[in-house]
TrEMBL record:
One of its GO terms (cellular component) is plasma membrane. PROSITE patterns: ABC_TM1. Keywords: Cell membrane, Membrane, Sugar transport, Transmembrane, Transmembrane helix, Transport. Its main location: membrane. This is Carbohydrate ABC transporter permease. Belongs to the binding-protein-dependent transport system permease family. MalFG subfamily. Residues 69-260 form the ABC transmembrane type-1 domain. It is a multi-pass membrane protein. The chain crosses the membrane at residues 9-31, 68-92, 104-125, 137-155, 239-260. GO terms for biological process: transmembrane transport. It is found in: Cell membrane. InterPro entries: BP-dep_ABC_trans_perm, MetI-like, MetI-like_sf.
Amino acid sequence: MQQTRTRTAVYYLILWLVAILFFLPVFWILMASLKTPNDILAVPPKFIFQPTLDNMIDMLSRPNTVPYFINSLYLSITSVSLAIVVSFLAAYALSRYRFRATNFLMFLILSTRMVPAAAFVVPIFQMFNAFQWRNQFGVLMLYTMFSIPFSLWILKGFIDGVSTRYDETGFVNGASRLHVMFRVVLPQVRPGLIAAFIFNLIFVWNEFLLNFILGGPGTQMIPYALAVGLVSAGGNIDWAFVASLSTGYVLLPTILIFLFQKYLLVGMTFGTVRGEV
């Protein structure tokens, strides 16, 4: 018994140390956003200081900051919502209408997310130029396309866990296929929908490379602002701006993960661990 308690204590100690290591950069950014520029660059670092919101006010008062936030929200929420709708329809079809190569097809679809974005950015760039898609529509479709494979993989796992008896009961009672899909199956895979939505929302929210290369005027998001806005007019890194923008940038993923962490657990296990969801 004592050995088991010691082993458990060691495991928790290691987990806490790893968590602290991951949280330290976030803690530094959060503290820097509340410091004056002189306090940020102070040596040794100041842990006791007078907090100020001047950095936040300055960050929000800059001309492009609010449009960057609006673009990030619009492109993330809209593209992922479209991807969830398409993925649910495809997942239902692949789950209920099985054929010999279903698993291989699912592997091919998911493998598109395994390829680094830099590997196909050149042909996509040429296509976007040819069709003049370097606008919100083009970027929206691009993020929708990238969000479909992972959403499809998660949702198919959930729909596979819903017995076909529910479908058969609905058909016997005169329900149409669409009625069964949206009124019978859809409510039972709600945790999967939420998990897929949050996972892909965080992916699009954090995406930089494609937005930087393929996006045109009016499509830039917060990662783009962080990349091109690091340097102030004097040629030095504007740490106050970077810290305040980064603090605002991490709020949405943090809130979503805190509110829906149980759904994320279910999503990562593809519905095999449901718990109290």
